[in-house]
Specification:
alpha/beta, 7-stranded mixed β-sheet, two-stranded antiparallel sheet, 6 helices, 26% helix, binds S-adenosyl-L-homocysteine
Amino acid sequence: MVRTQLAARDVRDRRVLATMARIPRGAFVPTRLHPRAYEDGPLPIGHGQTISQPYIVGLMTQLARLSRRHRVLEVGTGCGYQTAVLAGIAAHVWTIERIDDLSRQAAARLGRLGIENVTFVTGDGALGYEPAAPYDAIVVTAAAPAPPDRLLAQLAVGARVVIPIGSREVQTLQVLERRADGVRTTESCAVRFVPLVSPSAFPD
Ligand code: SAH
């Protein structure tokens, strides 16, 4: 998976490749989908949600430009796979999920894998998570019509948010870097994420 789906494309960050080679994606999908765990695409994880395509997880992590010292916020825990990848590189990850059952299952899964530098929060991630702000990076794994203001406000200067922006059906992966004099936006590729369900993104 790492060689053919990530390194052969444009995921080149050595820490991202090494971390994704270490974390068993099979541990994050329902048992009946184990044979398909390393396929080049998203898979259903229950509650109408998905585990992202491995390439997209690698790309988003690379775009976040993490270091060992970084404190990271993830919005949309889902099954916890992206969470585990972020935690494999950064100092600590706070991850918010709106569906309590998914959050609990992800926490149990990461516990079994011995990953301890993660705090699980249930709530509306479009509002960020104020108690641990500011963050060195924010990774949003659900689509929004525009970057939520509350998330941008919780970025440290020089930090970036990686977020799919667009309609409910199709989006562009964007990187917004907070600078002393404003925000600089760069665009990556076209993506399809489930909606960020929130009064300040896509209402339920
Ligand atoms: N990070 C996951 C992908 C999760 S899919 C992975 O590694 O594969 C997106 C997740 O975002 C879903 O679990 C969905 O329930 C959650 N979500 C949607 N809107 C949300 C919101 N406002 N706050 C927090 N989580 C939200």
